[in-house]
Amino acid sequence: MRDATVIKVTDPYVRLPYQLKNFMELAQVIANRKQREDEIKLHLVTANNEEYLPDIQNNLNQMASSLEPLGIFLYYEFANTAHDRSIIIDNGWKILLGRGLDIFQKTNGWYDIADYDQTKRQCKSCEITYLYGRS
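Now predict its structure.
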């Protein structure tokens, strides 16, 4: 993600609390890797059901507000035809996510260090493919 200015995340399943947490953990990785003065546009493309729409919009707006002081500007859109999961970075990298952002096994809850530290979490079986190519 080095030298990125635009990061587009496509994952049709970012709507439930744990999925939103996974997305925020990705945003945290981005925040920790960027230079303080850099600005990054983080674009989420996800699908949603009408029943979740008001809550998800509220949650994503809250996320956008918390990320903006860090120089990360969150934009989102709903595309009910989205199926494939990927991260496309404007520095030439594309990451294909077999499971989307939902790669971690469930932790034992709030009192489990793995809930706070991804390096302590077990992963689900999945494939992640990294592609590089500038046009």
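The helical segments are 17-33, 53-67.
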